[in-house]
Amino acid sequence: MTLSLSTMWAQQPRFVEDMHQFVHETLALGYDAIEISHSTPTVPFDRLLAFHGVPISSIHAPAPLVRDATERSNSSLNLAALDDDERNAAIAYTMGSIDYTKKVGGTHVIVHLGGVGNKMFSEEHELRRLHESGTTDGERVEHLRAECHRLRKEQADPWLEKARVTLRELAEHASAQGIALGIENRLHYHEIPQPAEGAILFADYTNAEVGYWHDVGHAEVQWRLGLVDKKLWLDTNGARCIGSHLHDVTGLADHRAPGKGDVDWTYIRDGIPASAMRVFEINQSQSPEDVANAIPFLRDRGVIA
């Protein structure tokens, strides 16, 4: 089983200066492949592609990170945008990531398929503030949850249709190059897809073309907010799961090294197929020791072989 470490952890000065050092440390910590994160700017991205001693398992689109004259990043573009100029720009960047993946011999591209609008619902903002202050139930919390559900249901259809059209374009481009697209569950409730939406979107494709990518932290946070049952993702799309982002959660803060939070890994062990790729998506604040210890921690819990 390939164990891949995301360059999310490489967002540290010592690595930004030379991504080859990140590669050497990745191997020393027990990993045998790398996923390039969408937060990787062009210079370290190019430097990483120039290192041929470690496999690049996957690229998280849209990589590399590019900003326009207004400092808007390409990752902020909505692949489900109703504005076709924005949507087409987002598609072009994602196709670029697919082309890079083929060039370096990777097999998967992870895709954020956009959202119902371009920003979090204000009701979710308030839910998060309440949760962080210790309020996780009560009349106000129930009202905010109901409003999130209502708003998304009322607004979703045109954005989902654009997401469907976008996915068709991306899948045709990727499958022609032997690349599978992993559509990731997202951190915020307005984002696409929700579990049932994913099942509909994936139905037109084989797993070799398009599948589900399970992000443990994203599912956990939405569950802790009371918006989506974390188990529903894999109950609905487990057979379509082709990869995973593994990280732990404390409160609503994700991307902790596995073992440094309080996720119950049992449903992950039972729900992610053995064939699905395992990528450790750990942030730059985690220590090398914790990044290394994440492997035996998840091995002991049966999440990795």
Q: What is the H/E string?
A: EHHEHEHEHHEHEHHEEEHEH
As laid out across the biggest beta sheet, the strand order is 1-2-3-4-5-6-7-10
Known CATH architecture: Alpha-Beta Barrel
How far the N terminus sits from the C terminus, by CA atoms, comes to 7 Å
User: What Rg is obtained from the alpha carbons, in whole angstroms?
Assistant: 18 Å
Largest sheet: 8 strands, parallel, barrel
- Total strands: the figure is 10
Structural class based on helices, strands and sheet pairing: alpha/beta
Which bin fits the share of residues in helices?
Answer: 40-55%
What's the mean pLDDT score?
96
Shape: globular
Approximate strand percentage: 5-15%
- Which spans have pLDDT < 50 for at least 5 consecutive residues? none
Count the domains. Answer: 1
* Count of discrete alpha- or pi-helical segments spanning 4 or more residues: 11
CATH superfamily: Divalent-metal-dependent TIM barrel enzymes
CATH class: Alpha Beta
Output the CATH topology: TIM Barrel
